Request: fold
Amino acid sequence: MRLHHVQVVCPPGGEDAARRFYGEGLGLTEVPLPPGLAGRALCWFRDFDDEGRTTAEIHVGVQDPFEPARKAHPALVADSVEHLESIGARLEELGFELTWKDRYTFDGYERFHTFDGAGNRVEVLTPVT
Reply:
């Protein structure tokens, strides 16, 4: 078994902030919704390996009333420490809240936590040896 996707939510009208965070900030690719879901208040983002296979998928849905997930979160794996640091720098440049306080608290990994445009917690980590 493997994980297919994680869904997070945003308030009505929050799709552009999601695109800014997940697309511009994390560098994920927005993909079209399947025909059966077209027209819904959703946006989907994916990352791909060198062969074009999906390696991560985040779905952002609209929820009203909205409350951000401040504890539950997706965790995305960066390719290297340099990649992790560049993602963190890009998110900070875009104005997203980010903390490195737990960078060395998970054995075998370096990481940071951030919050998307709707205030949902997201972790980005990379294995280190």
About this structure: The domain at 6-127 is CATH 3.10.180.10 (2,3-Dihydroxybiphenyl 1,2-Dioxygenase; domain 1). The chain is about 20% helix and 35% strand.
